[in-house]
C-alpha cells in the first residue's frame, strides 16, 4: 500500500473467526513491534500495517508480519463495555419499519437487539464511529436506498449484521432504532478519546426516557 504500508487480508466477509485473526495480529504487533513499525489499523477482515520507510521497507515488513503470524500468540480478550439505549419513539423513527420488515413487533425487535452478541470490529467513517458486528439475523435489514441528513449524535443504528452508535450529527443510510446517552467519543481527552478498543465486547442495556434525560443533565 504505497511506500509505507502493507495490507494483510484474512478474508472478505464480516465473520468473527476472520476478525479474531485480525485482532491477534494487532496484539502481536503491539507486543513485539518490528524496527520501523509505526501503527496498525485493524478493519473487518484486514489490517493495515504502517512502517517508517527510512527504517523498514515492504520486504522487511512482510517478513516481520510472517514471523508474527507463525508464532504462538495468546488469545486476546477484550473488555466488556456497556452502552445504555433508550427506544423511546422520538429516538427510534425506524423501529416500526424494521419491525414490519422483520415480521416482528417493535418490542420483539428491541428484545432481539438487546440479545445481540456484539464486538467492536473497527473504527471508521467519522471520529468515534465504532462498527459493531453481532446484530441478530432476525432483525437484519439492508441499508436504506438513500441516506437521511442531520441524524443526531448518540443514535443507535443497524444495517445488515452491523450496529453503530453515532458520535456526531451526520447523515446515515442505516436504520435508527434508539438513542444512547453513553459517551463513546471524548474529544477533550488526549489519553483515551474513544470508549472502545477494537476487540472489545459490547452489551446494550435498555433505559427509560426519564433515565436518558437524567444522564444528559448529569
From TrEMBL:
Keywords: ATP-binding, Hydrolase, Nucleotide-binding. Residues 1-196 form the Carboxyltransferase domain. GO terms for molecular function: ATP binding; hydrolase activity. This is Allophanate hydrolase subunit 1. It comes from Rhizobium ruizarguesonis. The lineage of its organism: Bacteria, Pseudomonadati, Pseudomonadota, Alphaproteobacteria, Hyphomicrobiales.
Amino acid at each position: 500500500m504505497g511506500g509505507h504500508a502493507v495490507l494483510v487480508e484474512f478474508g472478505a466477509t464480516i465473520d468473527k473467526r476472520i476478525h479474531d485473526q485480525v485482532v491477534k495480529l494487532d496484539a502481536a504487533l503491539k507486543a513485539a513491534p518490528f524496527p520501523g513499525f509505526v501503527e496498525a489499523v485493524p478493519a473487518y477482515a484486514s489490517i493495515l500495517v504502517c512502517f517508517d520507510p527510512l527504517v523498514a521497507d515492504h520486504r522487511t515488513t512482510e517478513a516481520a508480519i510472517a514471523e508474527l503470524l507463525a508464532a504462538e500468540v495468546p488469545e486476546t480478550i477484550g473488555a466488556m463495555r456497556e452502552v445504555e439505549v433508550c427506544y423511546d419513539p422520538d429516538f427510534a423513527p425506524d423501529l416500526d419499519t424494521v419491525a414490519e420488515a422483520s415480521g416482528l413487533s417493535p418490542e420483539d425487535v428491541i428484545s432481539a437487539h438487546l440479545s445481540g452478541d456484539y464486538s467492536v470490529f473497527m473504527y471508521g467513517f467519522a471520529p468515534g464511529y465504532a462498527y459493531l458486528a453481532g446484530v441478530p439475523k432476525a432483525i437484519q435489514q439492508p441499508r436504506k436506498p438513500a441516506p437521511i441528513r442531520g441524524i443526531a449524535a448518540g443514535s443507535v443504528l443497524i444495517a445488515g449484521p452491523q450496529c453503530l452508535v453515532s458520535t456526531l450529527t451526520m447523515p446515515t443510510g442505516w436504520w435508527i432504532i434508539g438513542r444512547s446517552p453513553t459517551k463513546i467519543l471524548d474529544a477533550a481527552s488526549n489519553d483515551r478519546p474513544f470508549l472502545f478498543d477494537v476487540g472489545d465486547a459490547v452489551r446494550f442495556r435498555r433505559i427509560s426516557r426519564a433515565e436518558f434525560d437524567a444522564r444528559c443533565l448529569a
